[in-house]
Amino acid sequence: GGGGARSAEPAADGSVRVPAADTPVGGSTYYQGADVIVSQPTEGSFTAFDSVCPHQGCQTSAQGSGGELVCPCHNSVFDPATGEVISGPATSGLTVLPVSVEGADLVIRG
Questions:
Q1: Can you give the pTM of this predicted structure?
Q2: CA 37 → CA 66, 76, 91, 105, distances in Å?
């Protein structure tokens, strides 16, 4: 696990640049202000999601004991590698965002 919550602001073009080192292997990081989650399911492989829960629009800002992404409002649980729903009330997964590695940073484009 690991990661947790940090803050990030989108750039003028809407992209979000964050340090890759924020997110450990097997962990995820929620970026308040940017509404983005970054996961690193396997070393060097990063995925990013829009943190808005598809159920009622809360921020999916918590983590389960196994690294799952959890929405604290109604306890919807999502897979940190794919964003798919593990358990509801949400009926659809988190929106996947394109992420690229640029040096020591990740750039997420929504």
A1: 0.92
A2: 16, 15, 19, 14
Amino acid 17 reads R
Which residues share a beta bridge with 62? 70
Beta-strand (E) ranges in the chain?
A: 3-7, 15-19, 28-32, 36-42, 45-50, 62-63, 69-70, 77-78, 85-87, 96-97, 99-102, 105-109
- CB 1: neighbour CB atoms within 10 A? 14
Secondary-structure breakdown of the chain: helix, strand, coil percentages, each rounded to the nearest 5: 5, 45, 50
Q: pLDDT grade, residue 37 (50/70/90)?
A: very high
Contact 69, 40 (CB under 8 A): no
Do 106 and 17 contact (CB within 8 A), yes or no?
yes
